[in-house]
Design brief:
Length: 106
């Protein structure tokens, strides 16, 4: 995963509202715009704008069900690899030692 991919993901999730929307979608298999708007007490247009940013970062996939627009976590999402690297430390051999040195400096 390129540094620009990490930057796009963190930029997308760095906004509090987008992070909450991402959490909603992660907890509910398919989050529809109207339901998410009601849950967060924001307009559907605002939800749609935030979801476009999450989709552009490759984190979610848009699914249309008639009049409703819903989103799911992307199955081929860079977030899947990111979570694997951060939580499960799958790239410890390439990033682990240098990261450990940086953390020790703190």
């Amino acid at each position: 995963m390129a540094d620009s991919d990490f930057a796009a993901i963190f930029s997308a999730l760095g906004d509090k509202t987008r992070f909450k929307l991402f959490q909603l979608i992660a907890s509910e298999p398919q989050g529809c715009v109207s339901q998410m708007a009601e849950h967060l007490k924001i307009s559907p247009a605002c939800v749609s704008q935030h979801m476009k940013i999450l989709a552009d970062a490759g984190l979610v996939t848009r699914v249309r069900h008639g009049q409703r627009v819903c989103y799911t976590i992307s199955t081929d999402s860079p977030s899947k690899q990111l979570l694997s690297e951060l939580i499960f430390n799958t790239k410890a051999t390439t990033r682990g030692p240098s990261l450990q040195k940086e953390l020790q400096k703190l």
